[in-house]
Fold:
Amino acid sequence: MSKVVVLKCDEYNLLKVKDKINEGLNLLGGIESIIPLEKFTLLKPNLVSAAAPEKAATTHPVIFEAISQILIDHKYKFHYGDSPGFGNPTKVSEKCGLKSVAQRLNIEEADFVNSKKISLQNALINKEFDIALGVIKSDAIINLPKMKSHALQRTTGAIKNTFGVVTGFNKGAMHAKYTNAFNFAEMIIDLNKLIIPDLHIMDGIMAMEGNGPRNGNPVKMNVILISTDPVAMDAVFAKLINLDPELLPLITYGERMGVGSYHDIELLGDNLEDLININFDIVKTPLRTEDMTKVKLLAKYVIRRPYIKKSECKKCGICVKACPLDDKAISFKNNDKTTVPVYDYLKCIRCYCCQEMCPYEVIDVKTPIIGKIIYGLKLLK
Ligand code: SF4
Ligand code: SF4
Structure:
């Protein structure tokens, strides 16, 4: 039976967070029973993009500092790192508040720029990944996901956070190759069979709802989750936001492929029921299965799509660079970079990389009006 520790914690107070994480680790038998002391360990936060901690897009520096102090107390040797979707990992880590913690505690930054191709036997769908050298050099991994909504997968938690071990634009190439939520989830499950974190600590004190994983709204969930099973952890996250785990292919495929279990969970720590937020802003309709390259009319008029809030666009062009398609589905008309980029929804595969990477939070994902009529007006987004 998989164990998930649920810890009520309502503020990013270092002493409090450290006490809570220690309490959770003890409920699992102590950190040294999970990761032997001699293992060179990687702390893998969520550093999706250069966002200040209060945006709730990235793992909060207090969570990072608390687990770092615990590792130092136990005399582990460790480093940290993540590959953002866009930008230099060091600069992103600086903006997210982790670099200053790392400098103060003398924690080295792992190499998340250079990578090596690693193959996976018996893959579901993807046999080879470009894995950051910093990951390859580590003997153990502590995954530090952030509790967030996600335009493509509905949620992003422990399972999805491993995607950051794939370097830079290699992630975009995966989006171009796996063009719906289901085959993309299969690829992520393959990655979770190749790179298996030993421990997961989810930052859900301040989560992100709505237009996640980069541009949603911060919402207090007041919780830290700890587990060695990412499937069980993500299922508990789903329960906390009143979402059926069966709707999420990362969870159902994860169990089917032996990454973890969501049917057999032992809850430890605080009472889950007291922390459920039934009003968490998340789309609860089933994920789409369509291949966007084949359903042109659906693509144009029905399926949730990204929109730019034109008056707020800074015309930086990052969304254009982030689009993983060779034949871009978002571009500057006539290559005029003084204008707002425009979408070609017939080309767009709905990977939502542009929405995820817009640094000014001006891309939203919404269902077109015809889609709302077809799917039912009960759709909120
Ligand atoms: S990334 Fe955002 S701000 Fe920059 S051009 Fe695209 S929509 Fe505008
Ligand atoms: S326009 Fe945006 S959602 Fe569409 S394919 Fe490009 S990055 Fe993905």
